[in-house]
Amino acid sequence: MNNLHKNARTTSYSREQMVKRVLEQGQPVEQVARSFAVSVRTVRKWIGRYLAEGWTGLENRSSRPGSAAVQASWWRKKAEQLRKDYRLTAQEITTKLDLARSTVAAWLKLAGLGKLKALDPKSPVRRYQRERAGELLHLDIKKLGRFEGHGHRITSNRKGRTLHSNHVARIGLRSSLQILKSQNAGSAQMVELLQHSTHPYGY
Predict the structure, then answer these.
(1) Which 8-state DSSP code applies to residue 135?
(2) Torsion angle of the four alpha carbons 156, 157, 158, 164, in this order, in degrees rounded to the nearest 10
(3) Is this prediction's pTM over 0.90?
(4) Are 47 and 22 in contact (CB under 8 A)?
(5) What does the alpha-carbon distance between residue 3 and residue 15 come to, in Å, rounded to a whole number?
(6) pLDDT tens for residues 115-145?
(7) Mean pLDDT on 151-167
(8) Helix, strand counts (H, E) of the chain
(9) How far apart are CA 78 and CA 67, in angstroms?
């Protein structure tokens, strides 16, 4: 494998020359490193590979890991199990397994366990379901302020204005709008409004 990246400082040929100059010609490692514009550590590395593997050891190697990350998979499953069974936080799992917190947090996020609420069962959807349309009545009540007279921006007088309030009641299905003019509209007035509201479907 002799594919070189653009920033490669040496080739298989230059590595052979380094080895020959040191082992065959007896040149100092420091001198060889300066002539090839590399570090002393690089020269020693290629000499060590040559002594261990021969000339084939001077070829480029793949950066691919030599073995699959089986252990990482086991640790990841262990972290997920602690999260599900004991509801531990990422920091607590990190302490127990002696792993990096960022790694544990990434595993939990990928598994959909990034937040503790993900472990809680989803509540069922509640719907008000009736056999016929119009059997349910929706009532909205809102309190609105009402002022008498002009504001202080016009009269330059902040006193003397009277504040009243109306309660607006809207019955949804009938689309009726009535104003309850008392300051404290009681439940009796609400009941009276409902009794006089004709049901839109005649039930």
Answers:
(1) -
(2) -110
(3) no
(4) yes
(5) 15
(6) 888 888 888 887 777 777 777 776 777 776 6
(7) 64
(8) 8, 3
(9) 21
